[in-house]
Amino acid sequence: MLDTRTTIDQETEAADHVGREPTSNTERRSGVLGGVRRPVAARERSRVVRWWRLWRTRRPRTFNDKVRYKMLRDHRPLMVTFADKLAVREHVAALAGPDALPRLLHVLDQPRDLVDAALPPDYVLKPTHGSGVAVIVSAQAEVVSRLPDVRHAWGYHHVRPEMAPVEHLVALGESWLSQLYGQGPNREWAYGHVPRRLLVEELLTDAGGRIPDDYKFFVFHGTCRYVQVDRGRFDRRTQDFYTRTWEHLALSGGNPWAVPEIPEPVRLQGMLDLAEQLAEGTDFVRVDLYDLPRGIVFGELSSFPAGGDSPFEPESFNLEFGGHWTPPRRYR
Question: Which of the chain's ends, N or C, has fewer CB atoms near its CB within 10 Å?
Answer without folding.
Answer: C
